[in-house]
Design brief:
Elements lengths: L7 H24 L4 H5 L10 H20 L13 H16 L13 E5 L5 E5 H26 L6 H5 L3
Antiparallel strand pairs: 1-2
Length: 167
């Protein structure tokens, strides 16, 4: 299996699932006359980030991981989304970025040094394989799962197949 096969396909599957989950959430809010902002601002616990940030961060991990692994410029995306439509656009942009990551640029990335921010005033450097397996993918899945959990906790009818993106 190529290193490319370890990253973009996983990101694309879950980004697609997040898009479908958000579509269901929007339909749920409309059907039950719930203000969209109520779901978008929902959290699992007061000290956790809201749904909008969970989606933004998941998108960032997909994009920035692919950029770092391919040696491309890491894009900066302001976190301004406040609606379901805007979050769908964010997911679509992340999906396009990941789809356009050239497979050949991943060659050798597993042993390349990847330096990335690890807090406000700190950076870390890991080999590409460690970065992907022990940092990027776990963080990506954490935020995608938390988005799913927030919506499920608020009554949106979702199941494992929704999270996995299986139709």
């Amino acid at each position: 299996m190529s290193f490319y096969d370890s990253a973009p396909p996983a990101f694309l599957q879950t980004l697609g699932a997040l898009s479908d989950i958000l579509r269901k959430a929007e339909g749920y809010a409309t059907a039950r006359k719930i203000a969209p902002e109520t779901l978008l601002a929902a959290r699992l616990y007061p000290d956790m980030l809201p749904l909008t940030r969970q989606i933004q961060i998941a998108c960032d991990f997909a994009v920035k991981t692919c950029a770092r692994l391919t040696g491309s410029e890491v894009p900066s995306t302001p976190d301004t989304e406040k609606t379901f439509d805007e979050l769908q656009q964010r997911i679509a942009q992340a999906t396009d970025f990941v789809k356009n990551a050239a497979p050949g640029k991943f060659e050798g990335a597993e042993s390349r040094d990847i330096t990335f921010p690890a807090g406000p005033d700190k950076t870390m450097t890991l080999k590409g394989q460690q970065y992907l397996s022990h940092f990027a993918l776990p963080n990506f899945y954490f935020h995608a799962t938390t988005a799913y959990d927030i919506l499920r906790h608020n009554g949106v009818e979702l199941g494992k197949r929704d999270f996995l993106g299986v139709k």
